[in-house]
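Q: What structure does this chain adopt?
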Amino acid sequence: MFYYLFNWLHELGVPGAGMFKYVSFRSGLALILSLFISTAIGRRIIDKLQRLQIGETIRDLGLEGQMQKKGTPTMGGIIIIIAILVPALLCAKLNNIYLILMVVTTLWLGGIGFADDYIKVFLKNKEGLHGRFKIIGQMGLGLIVGLVLFFSPNVVIRENREILNKESHTVEAVRIHPEETKSTKTTIPFVKNNNFDYALLAQWAGPYKEEATWVIFVLITIFIVAAVSNGANLTDGLDGLAAGSSAIIGIALGILAYMSAHAEFASFLNIMFIPGAEELVVFAAAFFGATMGFLWYNAYPAQVFMGDTGSLTLGGIIAVFAIIIRKELLIPILCGVFLTESISVILQVAYFKYTKHKYGKGRRIFKMTPLHHHFQKPGNAGIDALLQKPINPVPESKIVVRFWLVGIILAVITIVTLKMR
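A:
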């Protein structure tokens, strides 16, 4: 919104108005605004939630400091959503297809998460929104995103082309193709020919290859949206863990979006150039500012929890953002914390069912899942688990910081992989 206002003022000759042409300035402004909004409205929303007695219901699972969280206001994801959308809409170009998709993603999953929290808190149903409805909602969003990215004429790329030395067969230079084209290609790490085309998965379809390609692309999009969104939801179990991890991922995605939207950087990194992706940098800045501002109240000891309103939204934003900039195959590295938390739950459930069927009694791999709770549980708690260490429970704040450090390392590795070929 500000972009159009200041562009008009620039045409009138108002000094300084031309600064809004630069994505770096608009991103910085979005970051500052999101930090201000999340901290300024955060206190008011927390007070409102407390007056409405919207507190977290806690089950005693024998975790250190767990029962102290009882009654802490939840549904704080509302703070994050407002702090993302307001700066993004004020500072970005509103006609950008990628920004529109990110706004839809934020509202869509925010609505699903809000419904889940509402059922838990107001209707006193601990199960919340039934799992099938969450999956249907995530599938619906994945369907919309996949179809728009595949069919919209505004979603184009300029492909990176390698110039080879005829004698040594080494890459002399990388040139960005001058023509914009529709493409189902994405970036794949660790290999020289780093562009992977989803159309290769539809070779079997013969004359129906194009139809099969968009079906495969949409199905992959649905899977990624659901997986990352649920992964973020599972990670939201300790004060500041999901918010801090998401902030780190948001920085990495913002850097990748800026490089993808800059022809020279795209050429240097040998990745495709994505026209219009610069507006995602503004959104990423708002995302980072909102999550960091939320940490002001969510860091240990938390004054508010984000609830599913926040966790489902954060995961969905990360997934759709990565798909848009064609870096979704980097998600297992970048979102390694989310992935590990999800895998720990899957392994725990599968092993428990297997041992119960074989031995008549279910056994566990971890003392408790998701994985962050494994470190909270004492090793001498009488749980039949394969992994008993650490014997002494690790303080919650230390677990969170260590997970953040792992997230930072993974974010750096994600960016470095673009040159590791």
